[in-house]
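Summary of Year 1 activities. Much of the first year was spent building the evaluation harness for sequence design. The harness presents a backbone, in tokenized form, and records the residue chosen at every position. We chose the following record to illustrate the format because it has been used consistently in internal testing since the harness was completed.
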């Protein structure tokens, strides 16, 4: 899809798989989170520096649909695009297996900002994300 604004390639590690030989479902959340953090870095935002400034983006809700399992050694691409809904930043994140481009996971991740301990909008994010918001 041309609407994706960021993508990150990764590879499944042995320890991420369960007894069935496929990636344990919880690890997909790690992949999605790592992609969002790397996206932030790519637009000049340090997650750690934000926290030091009293700004904490947090996940409010996540919805994941598992389509095709990944196995140890599989290479995959995690892609995202985003929208803003009120004070929420909604990340639409999909993971594709590189070998055949099959959809692995389709997800929607709703995030909000807590600024100095209070739920708030973030002028910083509004400015930085403006070019990417649909």
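For this record, the design step produced the sequence shown next.
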């Amino acid at each position: 899809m041309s609407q994706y604004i960021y993508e990150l390639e990764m590879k499944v590690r042995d320890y991420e798989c369960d007894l069935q030989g496929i990636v344990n479902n919880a690890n997909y959340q790690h992949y999605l989170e790592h992609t969002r953090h790397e996206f932030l870095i790519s637009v000049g935002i340090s997650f750690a520096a934000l926290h030091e400034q009293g700004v904490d983006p947090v996940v409010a809700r996540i919805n994941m649909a598992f389509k095709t399992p990944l196995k140890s050694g599989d290479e995959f691409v995690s892609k995202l695009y985003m929208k803003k809904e009120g004070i929420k930043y909604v990340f639409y994140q999909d993971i594709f297996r590189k070998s055949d481009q099959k959809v692995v996971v389709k997800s929607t991740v709703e995030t909000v900002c807590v600024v100095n301990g209070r739920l708030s909008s973030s002028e910083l994010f509004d400015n930085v994300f403006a070019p990417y918001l649909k």
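The chain has one domain: 6-132. Quantitative recovery figures across the full test set are reported in Table 2.
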